[in-house]
Amino acid sequence: MSLLSKTIKKLHDYTDGNSTKIAINQLIREYGKMLNFTLDNDAKKITGDVLLKGETAPISFSAHYEIVQQGQNSFIRLISARTDREWINAVLKNFVLGQNFPMPADKFGLIQDLLA
Which candidate, 11, 28, 59, 87, has a CA 20 to 30 Å from the CA of 21? Predict the structure, then answer.
């Protein structure tokens, strides 16, 4: 594990995920706001609550992920995911689970260090 990886993970742990939540809120500000977020690197699991624009109540979620390397490219793949909205679960099942999503090149290092 690189020094940067250790630093990011310690920052995440020390701030109880608040630094990660702030970063995620920057990424999703067009869609809504992350209210809370937990990351378990050992289990490769994320959980949290998000308030999407236009919604009156937060949506709870949990997901298991993996990092996939294909040549020079890295992807995030959701292995399983669940929310408290059935229609979102159907969208996840039909369009998201098992798909490789490219890591944004400008944020790749940070994302990989955080999730690795």
Answer: 87
> 77 is written with which tokens?
């793949």
Helix (H, G, I), strand (E, B) or coil at 15: coil
Rounded-to-integer distance, Cα 84 and Cα 61, Å: 7
| 4: its two tokens | 């940067």
For 71-90, the pLDDT digits (tens) are 877 788 999 999 999 999 99
- pTM of the predicted model, to two decimals? 0.70
Looking at the predicted structure, is the pLDDT value of residue 107 above 70?
no
Can you tell me the distance from the alpha carbon of 86 to that of 98, in angstroms, rounded to the nearest whole number?
Answer: 19
> What's the rounded Cα separation, in Å, for the pair 29 and 53?
9
| DSSP structure string for 33-56 | EEEEEEEETTTTEEEEEEEETT-S
| Residue (of 115, 113, 111, 116) closest to 26 by Cα position | 111
